[in-house]
């Protein structure tokens, strides 16, 4: 089964053709990073307008690379939640138009489910049940994947997501948007023990909190500037990244151990962070766990992951009609 997939939840206009949930036939992503970099973050109105401009061309290119026509697709999958509402509406309405015109099934996909499904493309042997850490710009979750379409969230961020904390801390250190990749590069040159940063506590041992940690970095930088002191940016980046990764890893390992999981996975944009990948690989190995991680190319927002999850949603009978609408905030 070949599914045409569309993703437009934030600032990436993406389209892909995926076969049987596991094989990418084509995948095209039009990024807006250079434009949003001017403003230090994603501007929702600009993102929506660029989606409108890009989506037809991106879809055409995905079909061209797949050497297919719309008629050759068996269904249309689209991210409908969560995300920037204006951006989501562009993808949802475009997908609805294609599905109705071509009389193809319309398959709604939750964005977080899509990130998890990126692992199915990279690892053909991976099957539920397992537990997954989802870390991205807008999400930090620990999720039990009971089946391809049945999930249970046992931990989530109470404030900032890990990726959001990376970007805001990076800005205070003088790095451009998106900050995560610059912090990662600087951290490799720094001493992670140079700066002592707080580790926020949560009532639920599986929940996260990054707001206080982010604020601590910002205050440290501002206080140094006011006193005329110099901050070693590489050391601060290393200290911040190590603290975030340690929080994510420790809580995830505890959740997996407490719930009896030996198969674990990582997903989301922050899954591209080299420090997090290395720390998880080491600690899961120490606990006798099998870790699945998608390649960096599938960590950020893309349509291939939506096509993968869309396949399993279709098999479960989760199709929609013309009533489908975009939803800005929707729990798993």
Residues in β-strands, percent: 15-25%
Pattern of helices and strands: EEEHHEHEHEEEHHHHEHEH
Strand arrangement across the biggest beta sheet: 3-2-1-4-5
Residues in helices, as a percent range: 40-55%
Residue runs with pLDDT of under 50 for 5 or more positions = none
Could you give a short account of the major beta sheet? 5 strands, mixed
Q: What is the typical, i.e. mean, pLDDT?
A: 96
Form type:
globular
Q: How many helix segments? A: 10
Structural class: alpha/beta
Computed over alpha carbons, the radius of gyration is 20 Å
Total DSSP E strands: 10
The N- to C-terminal Cα distance equals 25 Å
Topology:
Layout lengths: L1 E6 L4 E8 L3 E9 L1 H4 L7 H23 L8 E7 L3 H18 L3 E5 H12 L7 E6 L4 E6 L5 E6 L5 H11 L6 H9 L23 H17 L5 H26 L4 E5 L6 H13 L3 E3 L11 H12 L17
Parallel strand pairs: 1-4, 4-5, 6-9, 9-10
Antiparallel strand pairs: 1-2, 2-3, 6-7, 7-8
Helix pairs in contact: 2-3, 4-10, 5-6, 5-7, 5-8, 6-8, 8-9
